[in-house]
Design goal:
Protein name: TetR family transcriptional regulator
CATH class of the largest domain: Mainly Alpha
Organism: Mycolicibacterium fallax (Mycobacterium fallax)
Number of domains: 2
Shape: elongated
InterPro entries: Homeodomain-like_sf, HTH-type_TetR-like_transc_reg, HTH_TetR, KstR2_TetR_C, Tet_transcr_reg_TetR-rel_C_sf
Distance between the termini: 49 Å
CATH superfamily of the largest domain: Tetracycline Repressor, domain 2
GO molecular function, one term: DNA-binding transcription factor activity
Number of helices: 12
Order of helices and strands: HHHHHHHHHHHH
Pfam families: TetR_C_24, TetR_N
Largest sheet: none
């Protein structure tokens, strides 16, 4: 069954719960609150979601899927280009759904209380995939000579924390677009990694981005 806005009832419930959890916290939101905002009785809400923790897990699953959608690597890309493209995708996803990202990080310290062991393992597995992608790109750049030697484990964790933390302030209608913020973040990281001085100065995001930027400036 669809609601007036074209969403299924389950999707509408999830959207409302995401906003309420982001504003009030998971613990501070009751199923009655969700039912009231959607305009359903609590029994109907329980028909779609048997427990509040299942709603939260669906929010987590969707947030993780959006983050994993940023994990894509074209074999023709250099390591710096791949890191930049990852950042663009990730920040675009966050800007489009900041409430989902907020719930994910606000409730993360408590998921062992809300979720089953299997659900926690699924969450951790997806987080590991993101870490391995970023870590692997930095290692690839080091191995090819594109990047300086560094502790890629520490750098990957730091960069993931910096980019994902943008959920606190990044909005689609903000002063800087997600792509512009991705450029700032990526340049800050890559200018500390790239060995070649000319590349570091003129093309830190890759030759294709530099060419597109020059063409845009010429227009």
């Amino acid at each position: 069954m669809s609601s007036d806005n074209g969403l299924t009832r389950r999707e509408e419930l999830l959207n409302v719960a995401t906003k309420l959890f982001a504003a009030r916290g998971y613990h501070g939101t009751r199923m009655d609150d969700v039912a009231e905002v959607v305009g359903l009785n609590k029994a109907t809400v329980y028909h779609y979601y048997a427990s509040k923790s299942l709603i939260l897990f669906d929010i987590y699953r969707q947030a993780a899927q959006r983050t994993l959608a940023a994990v894509h690597d074209d074999p023709s890309w250099t390591a710096r280009e791949a890191l930049y493209q990852y950042t663009v995708r990730l920040l675009t996803q966050i800007a489009e759904n900041p409430e989902g990202a907020a719930v994910y990080f606000q409730e993360q310290p408590y998921i062992t209380e809300w979720f089953t062991d299997e659900q926690v393992a699924e969450v951790r597995e997806k987080e590991t995939q993101v870490y391995e992608h970023v870590h692997g790109l930095i290692d690839r750049g080091i191995a090819s000579g594109e990047f300086y030697e560094c502790d890629s484990h520490v750098l990957a964790l730091g960069y993931i924390g910096m980019t994902l933390g943008a959920y606190r302030w990044l909005r689609a209608s903000g002063r800087r677009s997600a792509v512009e913020v991705a450029q700032e973040f990526s340049i800050a990281l890559l200018r500390g990694l790239i060995r070649d001085e000319t590349v570091r100065t003129e093309e830190p995001l890759g030759a294709r981005v530099a060419t597109a930027n020059r063409a845009g400036a010429a227009d």
